[in-house]
What does this fold into?
Amino acid sequence: MTWFLLALCAALFWAVGQVLVKKGFDHIPPLWSNIFTNTLVCVIHIVPVLFLSGFRITVPPLPILVTIVITASFYHTFYYAISKGEVSLTGTLVAGYPMITVLLSGLFLGERLEPVQYLGVGFVVIGVVLVALPEKRMSEKLKDFSWVVWGLACAFLIGAGDFLTKLSINRIGAYSHVLFLAVVSNPMGGLNYLIDRKGRPFPDVRRKKALPTLIGLVVMSIGTLLFILSFDYGKVSLIAPVSSIYPAIIAVLAVRFLGETITSKQGTGIGIIVAGLVLIGLGTI
It folds into this structure.
């Protein structure tokens, strides 16, 4: 059950980290959240995996290295997605990524979905619709539906990234994948800087209000390390759904610490999405 504990801890770290990151987005935008994260993982990820692996690292062949680069670019969309709306809602849409991971595993790894998994996919779709359609009294507040597009697009990219991660880990192992992902993420951050012109001004990290985001980035980086390491102990089709219980944790934390509100319809949607993700995972047991 090592994979289960690692995935569960990853979900907890992600939930706490996302709430902290969201709390300081007015001071540290997504571009710099990515750049700071890329810097942090050089310590938080590389140092532990070197010691855990006994400094035995496998250099990836070119196709796997390309896969790692693509994965890193996909993961850079995350902070942009959760910055587009209330984190209890955007985070839930992004949490649909296991559906993509499971589907890609079925198409390219020959893993077939069980009937209960198809039911889970249906639950996720219904839940997304409920979350994406706000009440009339919130229509003015959420008139810009870019958060829905970003959330769904990010779910697809992260789901694909996790699938590619599994391919890489199957070839070179989790420790080597973590190390090279950390290394290539920094050039991806440079590319992010070139693309995001509006976010280029350096944030004032000395302000107290920026501290929650910086702490959140550290917490989320630890969660990501635990998540990737869990791939060495279990199936990705199980790990992804278990790690995706974080929206339920986020919903509670966001209401308690961010003062966010969710309608009964959106709350129902969140519950249905989480239930769908659980069903997707149960079908693989």
Observations:
- DSSP finds 14 helices and no strands in the chain.
- The chain has a mean pLDDT of 84.
